[in-house]
Amino acid sequence: MGPNPLWLLEDLLRDVELRPGMRVLDLGCGLGMTSVFLAREYDVQVVAADHWIPAAANQRRFDEAGLGGRVQAVDAEARALPFQQGEFDAIVSIGTYHYFGTDDLYLGYVTRFLKPHGILAIASLASTVEARELGGLPEHVRAIAGPEALSFHTAEWWRFHWEESRHVAVTAVRSQPVSPHRSPGS
Ligand SMILES: C[S@@+](CC[C@H](N)C(=O)[O-])C[C@H]1O[C@@H](n2cnc3c(N)ncnc32)[C@H](O)[C@@H]1O
Questions:
Q1: How many separate domains does the chain show?
Q2: pLDDT tens-digit profile of 41-80?
Q3: Å from CA of 78 to ligand 1 middle
Q4: Domain that holds residue 29
Q5: What is the pLDDT of residue 90?
Q6: Which of 51, 71, 93, 97 has most ligand 1 atoms within 8 Å of its beta carbon, as the pocket-test mutant?
Q7: HSE of 132 in the Cβ direction (CA atoms, 13 Å)?
């Protein structure tokens, strides 16, 4: 659903060690393409959670792909997750985290669902300069993304946001290279 989710996920996981059999939450999985990729390429057990896409439709797709036993679709709103404390080895979120994760208190909430020393890895829409530093959202950005673009932040913004919370030890924060799939001039 978002731009180039598999490419973003594979690039993100250069910084993350997922081991076979780990229990991984794909938070905001959309149509579940990333969930299928995680199960197939990393041999992990995936819980594919989304708020807009019905879990029944996603589960049908996972079953048809022969992954019914390894990818479980769940209807979930990110701020009211239907999981147990310490249930996951890793939480992965592609193109989604900015919808809720900019809330100062959200990191403390979502990390409850991780085991001790669990992994939180996100790739999300971001910016190279804070809109605040520019005096506001540039009009060309507002024209495409609307006020949602206020939730796009720089890598350094995210580093500070997470490090200062002390809920996590930050191991990597970076801009991902521009997708190789973009056509010239786009
Ligand atoms: C741009 S799509 C990305 C989907 C998928 N990860 C991908 O990369 O193709 C954003 C997804 O975020 C989900 N989402 C947005 N807000 C959410 C929330 N509060 N709780 C759970 N999911 C949410 C939407 O349901 C949507 O599927």
A1: 1
A2: 999 999 999 999 999 999 999 999 999 999 999 999 999 9
A3: 9
A4: 5-165
A5: 98
A6: 51
A7: 5
